Amino acid sequence: MPNPSPTVVSTAASAGFVGAIGNTPLIALPKLSAALGRTILGKAEFLNPGGSVKDRAARGIIEDFEARGLLAPGGVVVEGTAGNTGIGLTLVGNARGYRTIIVMPDDQAPEKYGLLRTYGADLRVVPSAPYTNDANYYHEARRVAEATPGAVWANQFENTANRDAHERTTGPEIIAQTGGALDAFVAAAGTGGTIAGVGRALKAYDPKIRVVLADPYGSALFSYVKTGELAADGDSNAEGIGIKRIVANFKDAPVDDALRVDDRTLTEMAHWLVREEGLFVGGSAALNVAAAARYARTLPAGSTVVTVLCDGGDRYRSRLYDAEWLRENDVVPQATDLSFL
Ligand code: PMP
User: Which of 21, 54, 239 to probe ligand 1 with, by most ligand atoms within 8 A of CB?
Assistant: First the structure.
């Protein structure tokens, strides 16, 4: 048998799961782009090995703990999360030899709890409560970390290793994949790590690139960007995005403008994307694409807007893609074209 050529083993492969995070494709949305006369490109974060944009943050946070000597094999990582960060941390942890304790509110898509249990996380589900309530999952995660000997608290909201991962990887990838020819970047914020990190990388490359926040109703960031005051109105079923306070990862994000997208538009776009572009994505990705399209329309014809396809639709099959759930939440998609934009 011939010897396998050593050159077929790439650096990424030898780094295992962790080495497979990032370098995601930048996918064109040709039908949407043709309808708008502007190019819309989606960074396919659902193709990360843990299935979401948060794999990057998980890797960045864990490698930062390792570099600071706070985490060694056998160690424990604790996090409060809407799900995706927990999934990323658990899989990176499995590959690197760490246990994870994941605290989640009880109102997220059931698929995410199932995945975390399958991956072996010690999952603690707490009643959904606002941040101002001490029972909120964020505060509970801090308490669990404090009570667990030798544990580290990932703290994705205040730990800027999250943002740094995007500044180091996602931003430069987008610049390389577009040859720097983009006019705007549009993204929602859950912790702000993505928009802040990518925004900083893009602004350092070319300050003329617009960085635009896509916000769901119920979040206070749209108002913050527009007026400087935190204020929330309405509500949203979107998972993993929207914040009512300013956290360290979002704080220094170079955001030029903001748009709001309601749940009906998000749902129409999610179903349009799978039907017309073959892209099966989660709600935040659909919201991002809708916001990117609306913002693109304010730019000259021929402009290019990049957005983020944060995670895949599989994670939301019992909600966003379930006929009964859509009826119960009064968001049954009806559009046969892009008239909802
Ligand atoms: N979409 C989904 C589905 C998420 O889970 C998250 C992370 N909470 C985001 C978007 C937002 O990413 P970031 O935390 O980087 O702002």
Answer: 54
Tally of domains within the chain: 2
Judged on CB neighbours under 10 Å (0-12, 13-18, 19+), 279 is buried
| 268 and 134 in a common domain | no
Position 107: which residue type? D
Determine the distance separating the centroid of ligand 1 and the alpha carbon of 304, expressed in angstroms.
23
Specify the residue with its C-alpha closest to ligand 1, atom 8: 240
Number of helices (H) and strands (E) in the chain: give both, helices first: 15, 10
Domain that holds residue 80: 54-153
Distance 50 CA to ligand 1 centre (A): 13
If asked whether residues 228 and 196 sit together in one domain, one would say yes
Residue 192 has pLDDT above 50, yes or no: yes
φ/ψ of 196, rounded to 5, equals -70, -45
Looking at the CA of residue 250, tell me the nearest atom of ligand 1: 16
Query: Ligand 1: which atom is nearest the Cα of residue 81?
Result: 8
Same domain, 193 and 292: yes
Residue 227 resides in a domain: yes
* Entry pTM: 0.96
Query: What is the C-alpha end-to-end distance of the chain, expressed in Å?
Result: 59
The Å distance, Cα 286 to ligand 1 centre, comes to 12
Q: Is the CB of residue 190 below 6 angstroms from any atom belonging to ligand 1? A: yes
340 in any annotated domain: no
Nearest residue by C-alpha to atom 11 in ligand 1: 190
Domain check: are 193 and 130 in the same one?
Answer: no
Is the backbone of residue 74 left (phi > 0), alpha (psi -120 to 50) or beta? left
25 within some domain: yes
For the stretch 135-153, pLDDT in tens is 999 999 999 999 999 999 9
Is the predicted pLDDT of residue 205 greater than 80, yes or no?
Answer: yes
> Which active-site residues does the annotation give?
54
Look up the CATH number of the domain holding residue 215.
3.40.50.1100
H-run or E-run covering 248: helix 248-251
Centroid of ligand 1 to alpha carbon of 83 (angstroms): 9
Query: Residue 282: CB within 6 Å of ligand 1?
Result: yes
